[in-house]
Amino acid sequence: MFKSDADLFAFAKTKLCVPAVCDILDHLGFRHQAMHQRLRPLLPDPKNCGFAGRAPSEFVFCAG
To answer: Is there a contact between 34 and 43 (Cβ–Cβ < 8 Å)?
Structure first.
């Protein structure tokens, strides 16, 4: 359907409606797949799209 990831992301940024996608995921049984509504974008342009991944991290406590 899409020739590249760039084409897929361009389609997602311009054509997809977030509430509709969330409703579809809920209907398919994939609950809690969207971020909570309290979370806001860090950048002024909220239309960022791409693959998400996790990075390893650890808690570091530094006392005085």
So the answer is: no
